[in-house]
Amino acid sequence: MSLVIVGSLAFDTIETPFERRERIIGGSGTYCALAASFFTRPKVVGVVGRDFPRTAIGLLERRKVDLRGLQVKAGKTFHWEGRYGSDPNQRTTVRTDLNVFRDFQPLLPPSYRSADIVFLANIDPGLAGPVLNQLRRRPAIVALDTIRFWIETKPDALFRTLAGVDIFFANDEEVRLLAGEGNLIKAGRRLLGRGPRVLVVKKGEHGALVFTPDFVFGVLAHPCEDVVDPTGAGDSFAGGFLGSLDGAGRRGPAQIRRAAVCGSVVASFAIEDFGVERFKTLTRKEIETRYLGFKRLVSF
Amino acid sequence: MSLVIVGSLAFDTIETPFERRERIIGGSGTYCALAASFFTRPKVVGVVGRDFPRTAIGLLERRKVDLRGLQVKAGKTFHWEGRYGSDPNQRTTVRTDLNVFRDFQPLLPPSYRSADIVFLANIDPGLAGPVLNQLRRRPAIVALDTIRFWIETKPDALFRTLAGVDIFFANDEEVRLLAGEGNLIKAGRRLLGRGPRVLVVKKGEHGALVFTPDFVFGVLAHPCEDVVDPTGAGDSFAGGFLGSLDGAGRRGPAQIRRAAVCGSVVASFAIEDFGVERFKTLTRKEIETRYLGFKRLVSF
After folding, report:
1. What is the pTM of this model?
2. For residue B298, which of A98, A165, B50, B290 sits 20 to 30 Å off, Cα-Cα?
3. According to CATH, what is the number of the domain B3-298?
């Protein structure tokens, strides 16, 4: 039972219609690790500059995230700036300063190399090989999340990586784009044919759909009245999903269904405050209560 | 146990990216009555011209729909023409010829006047009073569906009608527009404050949300690979919902949840073929099988 997350740790500058926050802590690896930490003890592989604050490291440490794979380099931390309109599903990237993330070479400490689950969180699909080659044996699950940027700039590398992936996370727009098919169900089945055994389609406020060759599972999003900051919702979803799966030990249909609900639950907390703020106070008890709420939400 | 549906019976001309169909049978009342007919024996109030085909009447009769409230007038039947893009949720109205529907004065035969449920399906909100005044007593449930046209042209009449309604059906765009609020959950709660005891938000391929003061219930859409013609999906949803509720007799939370699933199930069949074609062959057995599929889809 171990989950390795390879992703970014970053500063985010975020503007919503109501508020602007400068250089708060973000990054796919950060969100994912914090979300997963409620279900297992994730190990992070990433890189930050010397400007990355001690308090952020402290938060990850308090959540018992293993940071032996975190490199600290001379230079500045990755900085992303984005703006949300009144529809929180629509965001514009204002600026991306890759900084030390530009030449990121993931290096797995020896204690990471027997991982059961390895998650490549929005990183360059070309890095999949170099990461997996460091492992002693193929992990039980290789999971991948991607972003529009890689679909548009490195589609071939992405499809090559996809062929060797067990669980693929993408949002509905990315699934349609990758499959070249407007109907989401058809697009999903088409992507399943490209390699992954499980495709998880994240649909924001509409929840998520899990496709496998044997079943389709749908999970709703928590009916949230106050979306403060949607940043990191998808990463938190993946973190909750994989953390739950890692914590469960077994990986059958029942565990996959519960993993999707855990992903949706944790993501619903993440968006209740800016950045990773909500993870500072979130408790396992709150997660369990909302998990039961998800059951009531769809029971008939 | 009786359900009265006041709505349109029409010719539809429909263009999808794949096919065009001229003057096929449609109308909110038609879809709704056919959908409801799998759960109860609906009574229709509507008007057609002398050009309305005998075969369409025959289909409704075979489905045991009570047509004593159907007026046949000299003149032409309501004709709507619409076009769908590659996204079936986006449609453009090309043409609307109201014809005999322009001066529609709903008249309830004596046998309709003790109805338990009365559904005003997309008709002018100003007609609610004249319909309800014909009843011997207030029905247990007054239900209303509306369209963007009435929201934009008769918002005051719509809100007045809404104040006396028990179940209000609207799609997500209409809910946001009516509430003047972008967050769907907030918008839903706001509309609940304007009168209805139950608000059903139809979200197309994303399913539906049911808001009541006591609970929120979410139902997914059936994962449909081939949306042939989305016309009438919302009307079929409402028909399945109200038909199920009428057939159940009781109207508690459990019946409301099941009604929403029945609505989603019947709507998922309606879009599998053009117009009302699918209702010609649909069986109660197929509905039951898909209903169980909906349970598996969300079970965890």
Report:
1. 0.94
2. A165
3. 3.40.1190.20
